[in-house]
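Section 5.1 Outputs to date
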Amino acid sequence: MSDFVSVKEASEMMVSKFVGPDEIESIDKLRFASLESVPMIPYTKEILEEKRENYYLILGINSFSDGTPVTIRNMQKIFGKDPEVSEPCFYNQDWYEKEDFIDNKMKYGWYLIRSNIFEDSRAIQPDELNKRYTFPDAITCTYSFFIIWLTKGVKLWYHDFIWCSDTDHNGDRIYVGKYHDIDGVNKNGFSIHRHLALRPCYGCID
């Protein structure tokens, strides 16, 4: 246990890329359940030293103050889908409203969240990438995006999508991110999409 760092040590090491209990409790827009006991940080000094340039260390909370779980569905109710009302928000779409993954609960604990995608992973099929990388789940990415925006003013993955471990009911891979459309066609909003796999029902006519 002595190999792991304390909250104070981690804060000093990660500096601006640390989101702990104090940062979480400072968020006006969100009210989380009381942080009675902060879990141990499961990373060594060596790991944090290696990761601190490209990663945030963030405390994940699993419940709001009213007892409701921290899920994509419940976060969507808080942040809404209209950037003209308030930002940050979700991108205005509803295809996933009946999908199970948006009710997956955030797990209480510490996470290292990469702030930018690996350059060598661009434009490569997810099944190929999943042989080399472990994908995070959609709720962790979603939670991290909004929490880091609200505590640090940083907009993660502003023009990029992140592959997730979740799939929809058809087994299609979920990907999230890309808050801003660089072409200016779509409105701002945290996007949640699915990568449609090629099936026999796809074809063409002349």
